[in-house]
Amino acid sequence: MTTGKPLRLAVIGDGKMGRAIASLAGEHEFEVVALLGEREVLPQGITRALLAGADVAVEFTTPQYAAANVRGCVAAGCPVVCGTTGWDGARAQVEDEVRAKNGALLWAPNFSIGVH
User: Fold this and answer.
1) Structure confidence at residue 4 (pLDDT)
2) Among residues 103, 95, 48, 102, which one has the least CA distance to residue 79?
3) In this structure, are residues 69 and 11 in contact, taking their beta carbons and an 8 Å threshold?
4) Fewest CB within 10 angstroms: 10, 13, 75, 83, which?
5) What is the 3-state secondary structure (H, E, C) of 30-79?
6) Are 108 and 116 within 8 A, CB to CB?
7) What's the predicted TM-score (pTM) here?
8) Sheet holding 80-82, edge to edge
9) What digits encode the pLDDT tens for the residues 11-64?
C-alpha cells in the first residue's frame, strides 16, 4: 500500500494480540487512532466517538464481548475485522445483522503467520 495516507485503525482489545497489532501497524501504513480496552469500551460499548474516525477496526477481545463490539462497529459505520474465537453461537445472527445493515465484517479464527 503506497497511498501516502495511512489508513486509520481502531484496535479493540488491549491484550497481547491487540498490542501486537498496534505496535506493528505503522510498519504497514496504518495509523492507530484508538487502542480500546475494557475501561474504554465497557461503560457505553463501541461508539463512533470511541472509534475516533477509524477507517477500519480490528477486534480481538473475548467471546462474551465480540458480538456487541462487532455490532457497535457496524452501527458506527466502521468495517471490522474480528479475530476473536468462541462466539460461534452468536456469530451467524451477527453476520445476518451486518449484511442487513450493509456493514462489513471479516471474521477469521486464526491469525497465525502462514495460515491465510
Assistant:
1) 76
2) 103
3) no
4) 75
5) EEEEEEECHHHHCCCCCCHHHHCCCCEEEECCCHHHHHHHHHHHHHCCCC
6) yes
7) 0.90
8) 30-36, 7-12, 56-59, 80-82, 105-107
9) 999 999 999 999 999 999 999 999 999 999 999 999 999 999 999 999 999 999
